[in-house]
């Protein structure tokens, strides 16, 4: 059974934009919407909500008001609301385990700064087992117009990007949008060539034809599965983050893969996802690799 679209809310404008995005996506994909508000008792707060019961009531009222706006806009949408006491990262990661997609809000101040991710957002992105979509305050449904594309990055072999491409094609099919599949390549150092890799490049006719064939091979099963989705294949020399951002002007959603890197201070997302999140001016979906 497919899980719900889950939105994490906390009363901020960013989280309300994420909730609105999640509701539209749930309607398009005929999925339920789950709204999760993670909170922790804060004893040093305003006197009227200084005790646990009053504070929980205030949190629940805020969550219910946000949901009321969504249900008024989408009367047929099945919505459940969970107000859960606990640490935000652990609560949201646990909610993601049962979700089709987790949607979060993030502060941003234009395309130069992009998404401003706090420690909660970074850890949830690195640890969630489902795709996580970041939405900024001010995101409007008007950005999801015909002609705007789902831009997805493809790297490595077909199996390396299967989850990322699946998410992009499913989203495009639900919206009637075009998928722009982007594969970036750079000149490798001479010592990276082996006799076997040199033969592959020679058979392909050079580096760029080799990269184009690699992208076509990765896309083939998804083209067959989603024959009505129009696809633009984009192969360009440069760093993956830079190439993706160069085509983001007409993107209604950017989709990138994620391999979490464990460090002494916790999990971190990869450089491509990190770069896109910090400079894209549209929602960004970060998809964990299978």
TrEMBL record:
InterPro entries for this protein: Rossmann-like_a/b/a_fold (IPR014729), Universal_stress_UspA (IPR006015), UspA (IPR006016)
Gene3D superfamilies: HUPs
Alphabetical list of Pfam families matching this protein: Usp
Location of the UspA domain: 1-136, 150-288
Residue spans crossing the bilayer: none
UniProt record similarity statement: Belongs to the universal stress protein A family.
Protein name (Swiss-Prot/TrEMBL): Universal stress protein
Species the sequence originates in: Streptomyces antibioticus
């Amino acid at each position: 059974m497919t899980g719900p679209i889950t939105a994490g809310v906390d009363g901020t404008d960013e989280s309300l934009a994420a909730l609105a995005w999640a509701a539209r996506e749930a309607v398009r994909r005929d999925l339920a919407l789950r709204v999760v508000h993670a909170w922790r008792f804060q004893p040093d707060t305003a006197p009227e909500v200084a005790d646990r019961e009053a504070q929980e009531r205030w949190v629940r009222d805020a969550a219910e008001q946000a949901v009321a706006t969504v249900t008024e806009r989408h009367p047929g949408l099945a919505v459940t609301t969970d107000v859960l006491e606990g640490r935000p990262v652990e609560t949201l990661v646990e909610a993601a385990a049962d979700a089709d997609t987790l949607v979060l809000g993030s502060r941003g101040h234009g395309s130069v700064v992009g998404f401003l991710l706090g420690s909660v957002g970074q850890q949830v992105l690195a640890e969630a087992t489902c795709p996580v979509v970041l939405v900024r305050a001010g995101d409007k449904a008007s950005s999801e117009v015909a002609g705007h594309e789902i831009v997805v990055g493809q790297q490595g072999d077909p199996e390396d990007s299967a989850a990322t491409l699946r998410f992009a094609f499913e989203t495009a099919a639900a919206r009637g949008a075009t998928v722009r599949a982007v594969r970036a390549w750079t000149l490798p150092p001479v010592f990276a060539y082996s006799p076997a890799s040199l033969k592959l490049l020679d058979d392909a006719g050079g580096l760029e034809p080799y990269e184009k064939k690699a992208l076509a091979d990765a896309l083939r099963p998804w083209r067959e599965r989603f024959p009505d989705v129009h696809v633009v294949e984009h192969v360009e020399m440069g760093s993956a983050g830079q190439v993706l951002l160069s085509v983001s002007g007409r993107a209604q959603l950017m989709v990138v893969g994620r391999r979490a890197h464990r460090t002494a201070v916790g999990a971190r997302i990869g450089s491509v996802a990190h770069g896109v999140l910090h400079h894209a001016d549209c929602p960004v979906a970060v998809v964990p690799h299978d």
